[in-house]
Amino acid sequence: xxxxxxxxxxxxxxxxxxxxxxxxxxxxxxxxxxxxxxxxxxxxxxxxxxxxxxxxxxxxxxxxxxxxxxxxxxxxxxxxxxxxxxxxxxxxxxxxxxxxxxxxxxxxxxxxxxxxxxxxxxxxxxxxxxxxxxxxxxxxxxxxxxxxxxxxxxxxxxxxxxxxxxxxxxxxxxxxxxxxxxxxxxxxxxxxxxxxxxxxxxxxxxxxxxxxxxxxxxxxxxxxxxxxxxxxxxxxxxxxxxxxxxxxxxxxxxxxxxxxxxxxxxxxxxxxxxxxxxxxxxxxxxxxxxxxxxxxxxxxxxxxxxxxxxxxxxxxxxxxxxxxxxxxxxxxxxxxxxxxxxxxxxxxxxxxxxxxxxxxxxxxxxxxxxxxxxxxxxxxxxxxxxxxxxxxxxxxxxxxxxxxxxxxxxxxxxxxxxxxxxxxxxxxxxxxxxxxxxx
Length: 439
Ligand code: HEM
Known about the structure:
The chain is of the alpha+beta class and about 450 residues long. The chain has a domain at about 1-40. Helices cover about 30% and strands about 15% of the residues. The chain is built from 14 helices and 14 strands. The chain has helices at about 5-25, 30-40, 95-110, 125-130, 170-180, 215-220, 250-255, 280, 285-295, 295-300, 320-325, 325-330, 335-340, 380-390, and strands spanning about 65, 75, 80-85, 120-125, 155, 160-165, 185, 190, 200-210, 265-275, 355, 360, 370-375, 410-420. The strands form 4 sheets. Strands 5, 10, 11, 12, 13 and 14 form a 6-stranded mixed sheet that branches. A hairpin with a 5-residue loop joins strand 1 and strand 2 (about 75). Helix 1 runs antiparallel to helix 2 (about 30-40) and helix 2 packs antiparallel against helix 5 (about 170-180). The longest helix has 20 residues, at about 5-25. It is globular. Mean pLDDT is about 95; it is low at about 1-10. Protoporphyrin IX containing FE binds next to helix 13, strand 13 and helix 14.
């Protein structure tokens, strides 16, 4: 009688949703088997016979993810960040390289490189490169992480490497992780000859999600979210709006290192932020939220409807809004996050400099955000963040460091890390001069 009276079907759907929603956050074998039970072992598309046929840019994801009706890319719904350390001092050796490459090649063969299968990249920190005698070439801008505002005291992620896994399929991401940890002999029908954990220790595991419905589904009882559960059902983010419009993102090509030993790679800053949204939803009207996230002019001209999908493929931040931010501060007593950050995010000819790929999180039992940003140089990210800080705007009495100053009142930086994403050919423990000796 499952479908006859409706009730049991609804219960089944709710249970299935509950399992899937918690599974990636929890991780591990039990989460995977619960997940597989719920998906009924639905097949996941397999990968390539020859991994060397894959694109050289590890960060080339855009052609392999879903897009919306405006051509904006929709990031994979489930994401995991594994922060990795090498257990011994000194540089890794040829056999470590071989082991790591073997584990990654099995993933390439096991899963289609897409949201339906698995997208991933591995990146290396400045501390990793410090293990070698040679420095990175001057052309690579990869400083260590540091505080990027006077009002934050983040923990610095200085682990050696960061493996970023992403998929629309919770079961695929969990199975890949289990196999990489050496806890599953085969993955999607491919035998694992080596595990990631034969080379690295997993220092930290962080997880997240992004997509319409996912934050609303997870908001109940979550620290940082008011008890009225205000996150709109159709919002991909806890703050209630869409982000990452095509015209306001750098292209993958633009953020790619054009030459030098790591040509084809990019740099990646990853911050982790905690959100406190009581006042965001409790004290602010919809118009005020629009003003603080986009710009006061967006609110005045009613440019944003609901979660903002009506904006199409562009946030509507114009060069005038960027230029007039000081004027907005005087006239409206507040400034918008996007208009402020965009000041640092454009070249003189208007090209966007960073490719933001942020997703939400319930790690540590609180509403949070993992914020990977790709750009050619880490300094570019630092400049954008300085623009977002809006310290210059506090000359206007109504604008305080955290109040009426975009969304700074509601977000708190917990961690920062910087990484180099090498091209695929150099993904296995490269030297600072762009080699993988013995391999
Ligand atoms: C909860 C946290 C955040 C939310 C909900 C959020 C949301 C948004 C939204 C809705 C926009 C306008 C639409 C778009 O262009 O994507 C935007 C723009 C932007 N955000 Fe954020 N953001 C957050 C945190 C950050 C952080 C930590 C940074 C780091 C620097 C950042 C950098 C930017 C930049 C640079 C733009 C402007 C893009 C441009 O037009 O040049 N955002 N953000």
